[in-house]
Here is the input.
Amino acid sequence: MTETWWKKAVVYQIYPRSFADSDGDGMGDLRGIIDHLDHLAELGVDVLWLSPIYPSPQDDNGYDISDYQNIEPLFGSLEIFDELLTGVHQRGMKLIMDLVVNHSSDEHEWFLESRAAKDSPKRDWYWWRAARDGMAPGTPGAEPTNWGSVFGGPAWEFDEKTGEYYLHLFSRKQPDLNWENPEVRQAVYTMMRWWLDRGVDGFRMDVINMISKVVPLPDGRLSAGSAYADGSAGFVGGPRLHEYLQEMYREVFEGREGLLTVGEMPGVTVDEAKLHTDPDRHEIDMVFQFDHVWADRGPDPWLLQKLQLTNLKAILGRWQAGLAEVGWNSLYWNNHDQPRIVSRYGDDSPEHRVASAKMLGTVLHLHRGTPYVYQGEELGMTNYPFGGIADFRDIEALGQYKQALELEGRTPEEVLTVLRARGRDNARTPMQWDTTAQAGFSTGTPWLAVNPNYPQINAADQRQDPDSVFHYYRQLIALRHREPVIAEGDFTMLLPNDERLYAFTRRLGDTELLVIGNFTGESVQAEIEDAASWSGAELLLTNLPGASSSALTLAPWQAVIYKRSYPH
Ligand code: NOJ
Here is the structure.
């Protein structure tokens, strides 16, 4: 096995709460995953990434961890985890864990000790600060910096007992760990080695580009209409980030083989990502950047922006070019924080859902990089028809709604319009397995409602149907395994100014591919420069086999992949 095995791998993300419930408590669990491993093996994915399954008060659905070396009882036990890991390995797949070490839960033993007293030996494991100079502790505006938390409200929580504040970039139940303290770092590395020794194959690292903060912590920029400042300049890509990741590599990964490490990095630039993923620098294998899923976001967070295809192409083209020689891209449309891609950049109407889901899959999987499939994406699952705020469970949706209404003068409808389209709960509705009650997810009452479209969209039907999104994704994954040009080939964007078609070529040695996706509900002719020269090429895959793509005219939401030898 070479250290770049993941270049031709496809990763599948499981959000365990919403995947499969084996015991009827309405919450997915590890036994539920074990029961469905054959679905994943049939799909052909190489790696499973599990969102957090550790003990947790579940304030942020497990991204608030109270014990890093155990399993949340709602999900199972270490014994069941070992059984799952064996089942994954037996099927020739790997398993990576979510590593959430920018913050812990406020119920983690480390934090309980830290908050107990100012002279606690673990006081400095978290970011404790006194009130702003000249202000009375605990009064509005006395927070040590003006930063807002991602989930609404200030990023600081006042602690009556010791009269100081602690930092939490996310919920108040997610205090930030202080990576400046070498004991913290060693405790994290010890825990990571423990999981690798148990047999796991790597980590997806939660907001890992926020672990290094600018010291002293600086105030952020306050923009008109927002209650708190954007503090990101003080913690995104901080001054010691590269040093920490290199130390982590030496302490945890050096000398081990067959692993995969991917760092979630909101706000990362191409240049930084190149440094993080340059194999000679020994940091991590790949990063999750966000530019392409923020492409439909304008300056006003409560105003929906329509996607400009030219903008999406400029963004992804920039990432492809930036990491062409050194470093590596991860490729994703969906995860547990993003709305469903077919509802977002595709068309989830009955007429076009299947075609547009397949087209989006084609465009993504044919880029250079490692593709990630989020549970249900392989079925073309859609956003949920949310009514009012009572339908949401996500701490982010609820917190932002409260702040926008109470402090920023927004109307409920204004905020709900955006939450319905972009809210994270869209991704978190239960996996749609079959047509039985609750989509076969649970025999009880699911923690979040099942999408009512499960009679039309479910895994059981799609496994029987050769034209389903499921079987199409299976083909895309098999194609990557089979055609070296998909994993290794270079990438050239075509038609950068076209608002309707996404087109590019890939080339490796004497093989060349042409990929085109139609992002509209109309027929569109692709005006690529040497169109005629592709007339004899082999049509490797299309999502609409009946539709003609002669003279490169694409039917609504059609995708085509042509292959020819180079030079032709
Ligand atoms: C990113 C995770 O993907 C998200 O779900 C979580 O809320 C935050 N990090 C905080 O851990």
